[in-house]
Amino acid sequence: MKGNSADSSISPVAAGFSGKAMQEKLARLGIANEFDLVLHLPLRYEDETHLYPIADVPADRTVQVEGVIIHSAVMYRPRRQLVCQVEDGSGVLFMRFLNFYGSQVKAYSVGTRVRLLGEVRPGFFGAEMVHPKCRVVSAGTPLADALTPVYPATAGLSQEAIRKLIRQALARSDHAGSLAEVLPVEIIKHHQLHGFRDSVMFLHQPPPDASAILLQERTHPAWRRIKFDELLAQQLSMRLHYRQRRSRSAPALTEKNKLTNALLQSLSFKLTGAQKKVLAEISRDLAAVHPMQRLLQGDVGSGKTVVAALAALQAIENGYQAAIMAPTEILAEQHYQKLSGWLAPLGITIAWLSGSQKKKQRQAALADIATGGAMLAIGTHALFQEQVEFSQLGLAIIDEQHRFGVHQRLALRMKGAKTGAVPHQLMMSATPIPRTLAMSYYADLDVSVIDELPPGRTQVVTKLVADIRRDEVIARVRESCQAGKQAYWVCPLIEESEVLQLKTALETYATLTLTFPDLKIGLVHGRLPPQEKTAVMAAFKQGAIQLLVATTVIEVGVDVPNASLMVIEHAERMGLSQMHQLRGRVGRGAEASVCILLYQKPLSAIARERLKIIFEHTDGFEIARQDLHLRGPGEFLGARQSGVPMLRFADLEQDADLLAAARIAAEEMLRDHPASAQRHLQRWLGEKSEYLRV
Ligand code: ADP
Ligand code: MG
C-alpha cells in the first residue's frame, strides 16, 4: 500500500477517503478503511451475464433481454408515460416509464438497440417491463462476465460508485497481500473451508454459473467461509478475554459446609435438583485460585436468591466478604430483608447500602464494609462507588446482570483488587439467554442454568383483553380482592419521559381509588422516597394493601406469594422480556394465578406478534428465543453490546453449526496457533481487538 497518501491522484480510493463528505457517507455504511470495503458484501446480485430471448423469459425473475426499439411514444392515458416496443427476433416486449426525462425520449428512439434488465409482467398492452434498467448498446456489446453485485447503499452514494470503490479496494488489497490466508491449514482442512481470498473475490464478483440460490440464501461455501471467520473472530476475542481474566489470582474459597448446611437446614423447603446442580458448579469455581466468572441463568421464580445466599456463605465461612448488588432499590431492599431473615440467625452481619439512604446510616455502613464488620453487603449500584472499600471482598454477586453496564460490573469486581486478588464474580439473570446467544455473545463467561421451577408452582393463565372491555377486568379485580387475594395493577410504560410515566401512575392510582372505594390500594413508583417505597411494599407483603398500583419498577425480583392477579395496562407497549418478568410476579403461591394484558387497538404488527408470543408461552427460554428471532441480537444484548463484537454476516439461528465449529476452532487456535489467532483478530476487529484485551 505504498503511496497511499491522501493527496495521491493515482489512488481514487485514497482520494475518496480523503474527502470528508465521502468519508461520512462511507461511515454511514460502517466503512472506515479499505478492509471494511473488502468486507462490504453484496445484498444480492443482478444477472447481466445472459440474454434471454423475449419469447421465453421466465416469469417473476429479473432477467436481461436485448432488442431494437420498433415503436416509441409518450402517451397520456391513463397518465403521462413513455412507452416503447422492443423486438428481438423472437418476440416483442413493451417497456414503460412513468417518470422520465426528455433525454430518455430522445435516446429511446426507433431503431435504437437497447439492453433491458427487469421483470417481465403481463401489462395493459401485453408483456412489459416497467422501469427496467435500460442501456443503449451496439450489436455485439460484450456481456458482463460476473454477476453484478448490489451493495448496501446510502443516500448520495450510487451503486456504481460503491462498486468502483470496492473493485479498487479489492485489487489493491490483493496486490498488497492483505487477502492472504491467516488460518492454519489444519483448521481449513478440518472444517472444509474455502480460501479467504477466493471467497471474498467470489462474493463480490460471482461467475455467471454461480448458484443464485446458494448465494441468495448465503449458504454458498464462500459465504460460509466469511461467516465462519466472523464467528471465529468473535469467539477468539471472547475466549481471550476469558483467559486473561482467568489468569489473575483469586482467593480459594473452599467448601466448609458449616454455614451453608446451617442455612439449608433452616429453610422451609428443599433445594430443587437444578439448584443443587448449579450450586455444585459455583462451589467448585469458588474453591479455585482463579476468579470465577459465571452467569447463573434461571427463569423468574426459579430460586436464584437462595443459591446466591449459599454462595455468599461459602465466601464468608472462608473469612471473606461477599456483596450482592441489585439494579433497583426495591429489589435490593427485598434481598436485604430476605437474606437478613435467613442469615442473621446464623450470626452473619449484613450492611445495607443505597443511593438514597441518610448520610449517617451510609457512613456507618461504609465503615462496617471497610473494617470487615459486615460480612455481607447488599445494595444498589451505590455498592460500586468509589467511597466503598471492602476489607476483603471474596465474592461479588450481581443480580439481574443485564441491567448493569459492563463498566459497572467491572468496577465491583475491582473492589477486591487492592489486595492483589480479584474477587469471584457471580452474575444472575432471569432474562434467559437463548443457547446460541450464550454461546456467542457470552462466550467470555461460564454459564449455569436452573432449568426447573420449585415444586407446587401454578401455571399463570394469561388473558388478552382489549381496553374496551375494561369493565370486566375491574369486576374481576374486585371479586378477587374481596375473596382475600391480592393484585397488581401495572401502569403503562412511557419510555420517552419519566415525568409522564409518573403522571400516568398518579392518574391511574387516582382513578382506581375512585373505582374501588372498598379496597385498600397502594401506589409504588420509581420516584417515591425510599422509606415510603419500603413501607408500601411491606404493607402489600403483609396484606394490608389489597391492590398495588405500580410502575414497571416491580418488574424485577418482587416476591409476594399471595398476589395472584396482575393487570398490565397498555401491554402493547411492553417488550417481551418485560412482560415475562412482570407476569412472573404472580403464580408464586399455591393460588391459581391470572395475568390480564390490557391492550389498546390498533396494534402494530410487532405488538401483535409480541402479545401472541406472551399469550402462547410461559417458558422464559422459549419467549427469549422468539424475542431473539423478532428483534435480532442487538436489542437483546442491551448494555452488553458495548465491548462485544457484533455479528454482521452470521445468523445465530441459521448458522448454529458454524458457531459450534468456530468455538472449537477458537480454542484450538489459542492453544496451538496463537500467532494466527492474533492475525485473524487484527483482520476482523482491528483496533477493537485492542480494546477487548484490557
Ligand atoms: P428468582 O430466581 O426469580 O430470583 P427467587 O429466588 O426470588 O426467584 O425465588 C422465588 C421464590 O421461591 C422465593 O419465595 C423463594 O424463597 C422460593 N424458593 C426458592 N427455592 C425454592 C425451593 N427449592 N422450593 C420451594 N421454594 C423455593
Ligand atoms: Mg431474583
Q: Could you list the spans in which at least 5 consecutive residues all have pLDDT below 50?
A: 1-15, 690-694
The CATH class of the largest domain turns out to be: Alpha Beta
By CATH, the superfamily of the largest domain comes out as: P-loop containing nucleotide triphosphate hydrolases
Q: Would you tell me the overall average pLDDT?
A: 87
Strand content: 15-25%
Radius of gyration: 32 Å
CATH architectural designation of the largest domain: 3-Layer(aba) Sandwich
Bound ligands = adenosine-5'-diphosphate, magnesium ion
Cα end-to-end separation? 30 Å
Helix count equals: 25
- Proportion of helical residues: 40-55%
Q: How many β strands by DSSP?
A: 22
Largest sheet, strands/sense/barrel: 7 strands, mixed
Q: Could you say how many structural domains there are in total? A: 4
| Biggest sheet strand line-up | 6-7-4-3-2-5-8
CATH fold field value of the largest domain: Rossmann fold
Overall geometry: globular
- Structural class by SSE content: alpha/beta
